[in-house]
Amino acid sequence: MAEVQTGDHDKGKGGKPQRKKLSTRVDFTPMVDMNMLLITFFMFCTTLSKPQTMEIAMPPKTDEIKDDKQPPAPADLFVTLILDGENRAYYFEGKPNYEDPESLKDTDYSPSGIRELLLRRNIAINRQIDVLKQKLFNKEITQEEYKTESSRIKKETKDTPIVMIKPTEKATYKNLVDALDEMQISNIARYSVIDTTSVEKFLLANKFTGGHAAANSKK
Amino acid sequence: MPKVKVKRKSTLIDMTAMSDVTVLLLTFFMLTSTFVKKEPVQVNTPGSVSEIKIPETDILQILIDPSSTATSMHIFMSLDKQADMTEILKRVGSEYDIEFTPKELSEFSLLPTFGAPISKMKDFLAMAPETRDSQLKSMGIPNDSINNEFKVWVRNTRKLMNETDRRDNFKIAIKADVSTPYPVVKKVMDDLRDIRENRYNLITSLKKTAASASPE
């Protein structure tokens, strides 16, 4: 492909032998080949995007929690979300109802699942956050201001729901991350991941047996 | 009739422009990307709407093998700075009365991911790099109740970070697979809780349907 110089110029006239004029053009094809190879190498061996993280704060061990003299939150603020195997989840609001198996409701991690309930319960915060988001969208406030303001709203708004995430032994890591994700989407200010107790196990058993577990325990 | 001469066009293309483009692309890739860290196990992280990027420095990554069960777990760790790696191996070694030679320390600092029980660490570092990869998979840092080296590693890393004024920057990140059972993750979280590490990160990847996730 390289241009070959045919040196026929100095044949004709006698006299001084003409200097061969060398072209200064260089063929770049091999250079392009090599670059392409390097690009492919970089594309296969590197990652462009850094992975995301999700920050999580777990409560300290129970024997280390000091009595901070806060009044206990009213029971009707609680939403207990039980993560079961096979991507199923169940929830109940307020105090557990041992009698009625229907009080434990089916849900999932889709937009029409637990999110609907949480968004509705958390409307006090969500309204304010929505206003804030609109401001951010219109560039009235900066990203930094948005962050501080939204955390202030989350802290100061009263009577927001408290979500207890209780993964069972059958749940997977994905379920946990999905549940935590839902908390973030619906701007839940107070939530925690807690181990399942006999209460949840009983409720699940009661649901699956259609109230037989409750009837049996009464006998 | 004179023949119509068809002008012969040269098939040569000037490759200079092409070369310019490829060099530009190459520079872009070299500057923006980071190399994939070699991990002993393939982990598929779950998607999340969280948009916090993982910091590049001062991070202790805990990798959980997807095939782990609550009773037999394989945990691996990775740190970003080589100087920290040698320092931590020294400290952990001294807790178990094992002294490492400078050669072993430098070998250790070059590992992308570590996860051998401390009693086997010397043997592991003496291995050829090729055999290490296959061996590492079956190893992992023990974290059972009798011999919990996992806590020792994390505790020593935290101590080092506190001593070198990186208390606030230091982060612990858990990387686990989508299918990892919750009891496995819980075991790791409980261990972290035992040594009062209550704030840590979970590594996730960007959810594909991020657009539909916004609450509007």
Q: Gyration radius of chain A, to the nearest Å?
A: 34 Å
- State the domain count of chain B: 1
Class computed from helices, strands and strand pairing of chain B = alpha/beta
Architecture (CATH level 2) name of the domain at 74-120 and 161-219 in chain A: 2-Layer Sandwich
Q: Strand fraction band of chain B?
A: 5-15%
Query: Which residues of chain A sit in consecutive blocks of at least 5 with pLDDT less than 50?
Result: 7-13
Helix content of chain B: 25-40%
- The average pLDDT value of chain A, as a whole number, equals 77
Strand order of the largest sheet of chain A: 5-4-3-6-7
CATH topology of the domain at 74-120 and 161-219 in chain A: Nucleotidyltransferase, domain 5
| End-to-end separation of chain A | 95 Å
Portion of residues within helices of chain A: 25-40%
Overall 3D form of chain A: elongated
**What's the multimeric state?**
heterodimer
Question: Counting H and I runs of at least 4 residues, what is the number of helices of chain A?
Answer: 7
- How many β-strand runs of chain B? 7
Total of helices of chain B: 7
Notes on the protein architecture:
The complex is a heterodimer of chains A (219) and B (216). Chain A is of the alpha/beta class. In chain A, 39% of the residues lie in helices and 15% in strands. Chain A has helices at 29-45, 114-121, 123-137, 143-156, 173-185, 198-208, 212-218; strands spanning 46-47, 52-57, 78-83, 89-93, 105-107, 162-167, 190-193. Chain A is elongated, with a radius of gyration of 34 Å. Chain B contains seven helices and seven strands. Helix content of chain B is 38%, strand content 13%. The model of chain B is unreliable at 210-216 (pLDDT under 50). In chain B, helix 2 (82-95) crosses helix 3 and helix 2 (82-95) crosses helix 6 (149-163). In chain B, strands 2-7-6-4-5 form a five-stranded mixed beta sheet, covered by helices on one side. The interface between A and B is large, with 57 and 60 residues. Strand 2 (52-57) of chain A pairs antiparallel with strand 3 (52-53) of chain B, so a sheet runs across the interface.
